[in-house]
Amino acid sequence: MTQPAKWRVRRRTAALILFSAWGFFCARSLAQVSPQVAVAPQSSGSSSNIQIVMKAIAFSPLEQTAHPGDTVEWKNEDIVAHTVTADDGSFDSGLIQPGHSWKMTVKAAASIAYHCTPHPNMKAKLIEAGATAQTQSGAQKSWSLPGFNLPRTPHELHPILVNFTAALLPLALLSDLLGLWLRRPSLHNAALWMVLYEAIITPLTGLAGWWWKFQTAAALPSNLIAVHQWLGTSLVVLIVVLAVWRRRIHKKNATPTIPYLLFAGVVMLALVYQGSLGGLMVFGR
Ligand SMILES: [Cu+2]
């Protein structure tokens, strides 16, 4: 083997060792993560009143000990409506609007998992008093890598598509501005393509948004969703107009005009506001 060839092999081996070490380190630190499970103090004696709060799209505590005969009250301190629905269908609160609460007397002497219907990731558990210790130690070992399922529901599809909508427009604008500054046609070409992709993907983002709205209509704060749905639909139209405009400029072999750049800037600001409304509805304040 020649000297340079030997060095190439050594460099690759060193890179492989570093990469393996890094992989091992990641796997080990992931394995050490234990779930954040809050178990409320166990009550003793006769029946008692227990309160569970719904805030920022989560139940708190995630695990609550209860005896048969205890009254559990779920308080919605969020800005969106939630439900308290047993996984096995044994109870369902229906929509609990923000500021309202729902009470239930625990009947069965068994642990029961429940969730919120409009927010399937909102999950928690009522633990039958005697089962506490077992469940707690079980939870420590149950950490595993999150699985991957193809997105099929609107609440999975809309946020994924939003990423493209949100990223392409600011990058197209930036690319055009840099193109003007550096006098580079390649940056203008990149901007044209990004605006075209934006115009193709944004109607899909809007459709997924409407689909989501029709699925969870009553659970959304009416003032926020009213602005979000119509601003979103207007943005779809504005972005298509922007793409047609950008293509015309390109066909004339010209650089983007000030009115075009101002229009793109305004659409981008509207998009930022639109994103903040969406975030408010999903994550709360
Ligand atoms: Cu919910």
Short description:
With 285 residues, this protein is of the alpha/beta class. The protein is built from 6 helices and 8 strands.
Explain what the structure shows.
The chain is α/β, with parallel strands linked by helices. 55% of the residues lie in helices and 12% in strands. The strands form two sheets. The protein has a four-stranded mixed beta sheet, with no helix packed on it. A hairpin with a 4-residue loop joins strand 1 and strand 2. It starts with a helix and ends with a helix. It binds copper (II) ion. Copper (II) ion binds at residues 82, 116, 118-119, 122. Copper (II) ion is lined by residues 82, 116, 118-119, 122.
- Measured by DSSP, the beta-strand proportion falls in 5-15%
Main β-sheet: number of strands, strand sense, barrel status?
Answer: 4 strands, mixed
> Number of helical segments?
6
Task: Describe the global form.
Answer: flat
Order of adjacent strands in the largest pleated sheet: 2-1-4-6
Low-confidence stretches: 34-43, 132-139
Helix content: 40-55%
Task: Let me know the average pLDDT.
Answer: 85
Distance between the termini: 64 Å
List the helices and strands and how they pair.
Layout: H1 3-32, E1 49-54, E2 59-60, E3 63-66, E4 71-76, E5 85-86, E6 101-105, E7 112-115, E8 123-128, H2 132-141, H3 154-182, H4 185-215, H5 222-251, H6 258-283
Helix pairs in contact: 3-4, 3-6, 4-5, 5-6
Bound molecules: copper (II) ion.
Residues 82, 116, 118-119, 122 line the site of copper (II) ion (CU).
